[in-house]
Amino acid sequence: MKETTSRKQQAMETRIKILEIALDLFKEKGMNAVKITDICQAAGVSVGAFYHHFPSKESIIERGYQSIDAYIEENMKNRAFADCQEKILTLFKEANFFMEELGWKFIGDVYKYTLSTGNKYTLSTKRFPYRFIEQSLEEGIASGEFHKDIKPAQAAEFLMKLVRGITFDWCICEGSYSLVEEAGKTIEIILRDYMA
């Protein structure tokens, strides 16, 4: 039994190592310039090991998004917030900081991948950011912080669309401004309209 657990642990560590190295290479060179053999060489794994963990180079993008969601979820746990507006602003600040760290080239590649493959993971309302925003809006409505006529699911989707648009603009502008600051200012304006 211990041997099986050890193998599973080793497999998970290898998957994480491949993912992290691939994301670093994508960030540095752009996804199109990176070959699977480059990832394998940098990670010290065989091509077969790569394909055991990932069906394609592009599938790393979806796993990357899942990792970002997990990172944000972990960073939001057990935090104290003054109010629900601060919860939502902090979520976007965390997410956009992570995007800035990955860089506009990589995020641009993510958008290209999403458009070319039809992968809709980023739109899933089951993702942590959507659920967190919706829950925060529900709490804010119940406490009287936000207007009662706000539809939390619809508002969460709107805020996510808005930030995707700002992120797209940030990529077009080659990261020439702070995504964290620009998105934060814009979200704050919208949330002021939601205030009761």
TrEMBL record:
Gene3D superfamilies: Tetracycline Repressor, domain 2. Residues 12-72 form the HTH tetR-type domain. The keyword DNA-binding applies. One of its GO terms (molecular function) is DNA binding. Residues 35-54 bind DNA. The keyword Lipid biosynthesis does not apply. InterPro entries: Homeodomain-like_sf, HTH-type_Tx_Regulator, HTH_TetR, Tet_transcr_reg_TetR-rel_C_sf. It comes from the Bacteria. Keywords: DNA-binding. This is TetR/AcrR family transcriptional regulator.
